[in-house]
Amino acid sequence: METFLQQLVNGISQGSAYALIALGYTMVYGVLRLINFAHSDVYMFGAFMGYYIANSTLGLALGPSIPGAILVMVGSMALCACLGILIERFAYRPGRSPSPFTLSFWFGILGAGFGQLLGGTLVSVALGALAGAVLGFVLEKVGLKPKPQSSHLKLLIIAIGVSFFLENGGQQVFGADPKFFPQIIPNRSIDVGGVSLDTQKLTVLGVALLLMILLNVVVHYTKTGKAMRAVSFNLDTAKLMGINTDRIIAFTFALGSALAGAGGILVTLMYPRIDPLMGIMPGLKAFVAAVLGGIGNITGAMIGGLIIGLAEVMAVGYGQSTYRDAIAFVILVLILLLKPTGIMGKGMVEKV
Amino acid sequence: MKRWLLWLGVLLVLAGLEASLRGLIGPYAYQITVLVGVNIILAVSLNLINGFTGQFSIGHAGFYAVGAYTSAALVKFGGPAIRGLVGFLPAIGQDAVLLLAGLAAAAIVAGIAGLAVGIPSLRLRGDYLAIVTLGFGEIIRVVILNVDSIGGARGFSGIEQLSNFFWVYFFVLVTIVVIHNIVHSSYGRAFVSIRDDEIAAEAMGVDTTRFKVLSFVISSMFAGIAGGLFGHFTMYLHPNSFTFVASFNVIIMIVIGGLGSIEGAVVGATVFTVALELLRKLGPFRLVSFAVLLVLIMIYRPQGLLGSWTLFKGRRKAAPKAMVV
Predict the structure, then answer these.
(1) Which of A159, B100, B259, B314 could be bridged to B323 by S-S, CB 3.0 to 4.6 A?
(2) What is the pTM of this model?
């Protein structure tokens, strides 16, 4: 019984981290009907940003304390939100409709990469980025125009490209070898009836719960939230009603990415090893959680995340731990066979 | 009659190249050439699902792994028995029988895996296939890591070297001819109709699920063959060669060349494999730049670099147009 309760606590804290990531998938799917593969890498980015903030002068000065943890958390969430907006603006939006400076942005990044390889100094990186951006700008002016039409598959391939870009870019910028996340909250553990509750797990639970409540408030009680729901209901009609859909989509990406960043920090509280490919597995599982709950449905994502987390921890606790990574996918295949719309999902009729 | 002569000629040319190529271009370039061939099989077969049927699989490496391990295991554990059966043949003939048996097993098992993955996911929207195939690839890897008799996390070593330039390029030709003929048959028209408009195809009486599963199974079988050829060439397999990265690489190949173009897949596979080797010095940056290339191609030239350009115009029937993404 005590083992069971212990596993329950472990599963719920693991599951709430999955739920936070799943929210980002489900919100973006809601507005764009797109599996944002890059989301799992935003989660990785969040963990790395937290690592760098915690190891900065200010972070080290604060040490493992509540203000320090808040600094790491909020800083990393803000940076992830920025990354989410950048991804949306320079990868997905040009895939939907022509938008300026796309080539400048990507060529600037390539230029920065070449700058690092050739010079290795900050100046050479900056010069490379500048040269690339100018070249991209000129090419755009000369007349390299994106294809105007948007399509499902095109966005999906772009998403895969962005994900691949972030993973390999992470290996180049952060280094491929794993790093260890410093302790950002004081570690204490209390024993409640044989179940050990440590500060990490309690923090994960508390923060995840708080963020989910905040998200619900934003989505249901603010004007932007109402616009998000409208865009998710029907993008074209929302546009006709005078909603600036591009801005709402960008906001959705920012919100989802910030949650992924928070998820990244929370998971590294429990498992402190971070590397540039760390996002793939949790990302996939969080996506399965989103599908399980009914993709596009925010409450569903939370429930799905908890179920996946619990199933995984229970299976590891009572069965084969080496098959841990396969459990989520077995669940996925089962849902697809039994109830493809997910627990909370509504059936969708495809119109001609 | 004429066709037999053509194939005989091709075989002779391949055998001649096999005998002379290693000396001509050196072992390193020979190895890259063989890898290019394996990647061409992967790209052309994935193109059947992603380019011609318009579904989106990102777990090709899973079927590749199934094929590689099946063939290697069959040859390792059943090799002596098979050699005994065909003991009357010279060594080279025994090798050929052994390799073909391994590849047949690889194709069958990978095809069954394709069927098992395809049926639940292909009844649903395209997105689900993408995520299920990705998940399936990971499941396969986890299972292989846990099976000790095929090496587990140590990797599978001691595989007989049976495949070489001759066999790889023979199967490259087989793959291209088979996929080309399928695409130009009534089956191919059904695939393309699903890609262009699934609802209209269904209204015209195309059993869309059946054809989607069929294209998926055929594609998986060729991925299995590619895996078998790869394993018997490198003589060592490790689960880490079959991660999602391997699947993404194949997608990059077919997107560079153009979805729904066999020539495009061949060119894409060749360019990608060779470029990765030439740019080895750049480290992770070469994959960064390929990722950027993938994004930019999709934004600026979604039909791929080659688009619907085709080398062999059908004499009677027009070739299906490349995919408009």
Answers:
(1) B259
(2) 0.88
